[in-house]
Amino acid sequence: MQHASDQWHVAILVVLLSLIIVVRILLGRHGAAPFIRRIAGLNAIDEAVGRATEMGRPVVMVPGISGLDIVTLQALSIFSYVARNVARFGNRTIVPTIDGLTTGVAQETLRDAYADSGRPDLFHEDDVRYLTDQQFPFALGVAGLLTRERAAASFLFGTFAAEALIMAEVGQEVGAVQIAGTPSTTQIPFFIAACDYVIIGDEYYAATAYISRDRTLLGSIVGQDYCKLILLAVALLGCVAFTWYQWLTQHHHAGPLIEHLKYIVNYFKPG
Amino acid sequence: METSLWQRMQTIDRRVIYALLLLVIIVPILVPSLGGAVPIIPSQQSLDFYNTIEGLAKSDPERKKLVIVDGWWAAGTRGENQWQEQAILTHLMQRRIHFATLSFDPQNKTLTQNIAQNLAAKYHYVYGQDYVLWGYRPQFVPTLKGISSPNGLQEAIKTDQNGTPLGQIPVMKDIKDLKDIGAIIEITPTGSLGTWIGLVQGKYNTPLLYAPTAVMAPDAYPFLDSGQVSGLLTGVKGAGDYEQLTGTHTFGTRATGALSLVYALIIVFVILGNVGYHVGRAAARREGQ
Amino acid sequence: MFHHFFAPVSPHTHTAEYVGKLLFGLVFVFAILAVLQAAPKTWRKSIIAVFTFLGGIYYAVEFFWPADKIGPNAGENWLTPYQPFVANLSAVVGSFSVGIGMISLLQFHTRAIARQRAGWGNSVALILCFAAMLTFGLLNQYAPHLTIIPPLLPFGPFAPRAQNSHDVFNFLYLGGYANLDAATFSLIAFYIASASYRAFRVRSWESTLLMVSALIVMLGATFGAAITGGIHPYLSPGVENPWANLRIERLSEWLLTQINAPAQRGILFGIYVGGLAVSLRLWLSLERGAYFDKEI
Fold this sequence. Notes:
By secondary structure, chain B is of the alpha/beta class. Chain B folds into two domains: about 1-35 and about 255-290; about 45-235, Rossmann fold (3-Layer(aba) Sandwich). In chain B, about 55% of the residues lie in helices and about 10% in strands. In chain B, strands 3-2-1-4-5-6 form a six-stranded parallel sheet, sandwiched between helices. Chain C has nine helices and four strands. A two-stranded antiparallel sheet of chain C has the order 1-2. In chain C, strands 3-4 form a two-stranded antiparallel ribbon. In chain C, helix 5 crosses helix 6.
């Protein structure tokens, strides 16, 4: 197993980034709420839910194909918000899942969302259903669900792999408004081709903060931005050091400077 | 009439697209000469993959090192991964490199075993002396952590898929931990690359070779650039490249030919759609004037 | 003693110890649940926060605690030997999801049949397939040579050998399920064609860039080399032709390594930092919203 003592600079960086995030979370509870730029996909949630209500067709929310991990928990947090809106409009929500534990958590999440919106009677336990734990059978199950129920809005949030396009394309075929968000970078091009709105990269993790405007979560977003600045600075330092080192060696310079640059370049090499 | 034609070009029925696609896939596979007419030029990443194995064969003439061939793929993605695995195991056997197969999917165990045994018969590879099948392990991260711990490989894997303790298998006699591994080959439709890099590859800079399905390949480019991944076979095209490099021509080669024709068909449809869109818009503007 | 107590035990060779540990585990779990249930409501969130923190503390401490550099335990610290035990804990919890999933599935479909909801015939088919795979899967594991279909005819597909449970399992799993799985994956090819046809339209600068780069990469992967094959890579031996950079496969390579890879890397930085933030919020019970703010 790898340990911090194998690569102390990695360990120090992890501790520094973690501290920044935690401190900003704690500080975020006080002071003015930070600004978050507009994210079109998240703004479109209300529009999609309203459209589904007008058409009298249900909303389908798919929490991805991984088990109960941080990506799925994030997806369920977003679905909780969407479900509150759907409940307020008196519409139905269907959530197919690929994992037994996720099914239980999703049922409780939706039950609470409908209850908080004053419509507990509209929630049916069977609307949150476990399909299978296999990737492609799950995609087919979701495709069948979208087709049979003639979903008017489809939310695809979570971890997705090759089956993403099957679900997105079938949603497109039935005419659903589709909003997708995933940290799986390989599926983003497919969602862009088949969905109406796509949440890319760390917008996914910022979604709950954006939707809820909770101070703690907004503070976390600020912390993440500081972390990215630090990583950017480290990357720039590496670029400058490596470029300078290459130039000096090509022009046959020698001396302490080149040794320092060589140390920096070798220290940050992978492996 | 003109507008209606341009409209039709933009909205070709899906069933027509699917029917033509089906023809373009099936015909080159059934008629090998048609698919083989398209020249296969191996990509740089496929060449790097091949050269890493060649380099290993040259640097380890006594065959003291073992190559781990790890498979996550199951029947769902065998259209791409099966031919990659076949081409890779063919190369390993051609160079008499010792290898062990490891499966993290229960289906993969049987599928890999079938491929390995068929090729072993062809290349006179003896089980236990030249290669071993470790079989299926349900826990991915703990197994990787075990493999990367000092002298922990045999403790992590324990037995081959027939239940024989690894210590009793000749090819495993001197294989104690990651230092004795010459390369790791990951054949997968999943995003497991990051875990291999994070837990295993970085410890001794063991060459990591990646053979994913085509949709997962873009994930690997940042790691190719940094040198953490030494080579990449992209889907069935990668299998075709590798068959070209190893001089074996099986389904991977025919499928690469079919793939070329499918891409050509998609390009034709995209062009038709764009012509219909722009000419239709211009025609509508003229009519409006 | 700690190692021995939590080491896996074979039910065949140490039956008494296995049953004893199983009963102890069940009693212990129910005792914990009873204590949690009896705890005052104001304490429950704190108890959950403590367990959550303890659940994540092992891997964090194990990573940061210095490892021995030399000696018989080089590369390990005092926590490393407990890694298999902790991994087994998470595997046990994960395996419960299989049972929960099965129960949920059967409940839903039996209700659908009982209430004769639309499409209840599909539910009957599902339960029959479920029963068949379960039966023949178990028979394949414990009685693979049990005759299921005796030789019916002296000729034909069932002659001259009877079909045993292993044969029937292979027919259902490898012949049925595996092929359906592969067929589903191949649907993606058709969907990519229709999605590309629909999405790749020159409507703006961004969509033009998207389409052109997609075309170059597609051509570069296949017969593009034949289109630009006339541009020779070398002007003379050892002298590279700069115009060779316009060969389609080189343009494709450039797009993938110099444009796609840095963009991916940038997105990955954001994703991993976001993942770190969410993980910290969950571990330290700082998460808000949805079910995290609920009364327990």
